[in-house]
Amino acid sequence: MMEKAKSPAKSREYSVLIAYEPGDVGRELKTMMGSLGYRVETATDGDQAWVLLRSHPFELLLVDAGLPGKPSYELCNGIKTSDLDTKVVLIASVYRKTRYKRSPKSLYGAHDYIEQHHIHDKLPDKIAALFGRAHPCTTKPGADPEKIRRAGDLRINPSGSTVEFDKTRLKRLARILASDMAVYNPELLKTGFKDFTQQEMEDLSDGQSFFRRLVPMDRAHAEKLLLEALEFLKTGKQKTGDKQGEKAKP
Question: What residues are paired with 61 via a beta bridge?
Answer without folding.
Answer: 17, 88
